[in-house]
Amino acid sequence: MTSDHFPVLVTGATGRVGRAVTGLLIDASVPVRALVRRHPDPAEALPAEVEIVTGDLTVPDSLDKALYGAGSVFLVWTAPPQTAPAVIDRLARHTRRVVHLSAPHRTPHPFFQQPNPMAAMHAGIERLIAAAGLESTIVRPGMFASNALLWWADAIRGGDVVRWPYGAAETAPVDDRDVAEVVARCLSEDGHAGSDYVLTGPESLSQADQVRIIGEALGRPITFEDLPPDDFRRRTPEAARPAVDMLLAAWKATTGHPAYVTSTVSEVLGRPARTFRQWATDHATAFADPDARHPLGSGT
Fold this sequence. Notes:
The protein is built from twelve helices and eleven strands. By secondary structure, the chain is α/β, with parallel strands linked by helices. The model is unreliable at 293-300 (pLDDT under 50).
């Protein structure tokens, strides 16, 4: 454990990773301060032990109260990049350690080397953190297992066929819970400053195999049918086109290559990373129940 008792400031505390990190820190008796743009609704309530402070990454002046006295910060960037220099400057004035949830844009694998505005943004934030002289740990999850809910849950609830592009493309889905546990360790233990952790699941699986595994967790066969990329693109709302184009390019580039797999989760946590089958089994209800909800998005 760290030797101080200063609070950890968690940004993105109501997101899927941030919320889990908050709970893990509380369980480890680490004081937590959550930065929120507004006080959570009762349904989004954080543990009672969490100190909630309002602030906004797009308004750097609003962060001073949240940062005052903080020993470290879990930085999940959820804003346009324009205010990043001012935000990092404020972090450097008030705290000494930052754990940044980034992306594996440095990883020499075709999936991660496609043009990606989000990766470019993360790279810029990392440069700012380094220039500010902060002690930092960069955590780089690959594909989140929970993306399967965002992508395929509606089709699986409605029938036995998933139509999706590039079924042969392989990824190594990482369980959100493993990401959160690694982040919590980095925030609550010494020895992680300067580390650069690329997190993946323990195995390379095609998208078609992932759908099959979800079906097995549900106890019924789910068929994967390849959807032409142009058809997939046409079905996408205009606002989502940049993200879709990035994914299509990544899936195309990685087809024929096994996914990039690391052992970082097991090395940091001292136990095996959760498999995609474990994740699918634990989340089977969300694929079967149309009223089930799961936090989705970019891993915040």
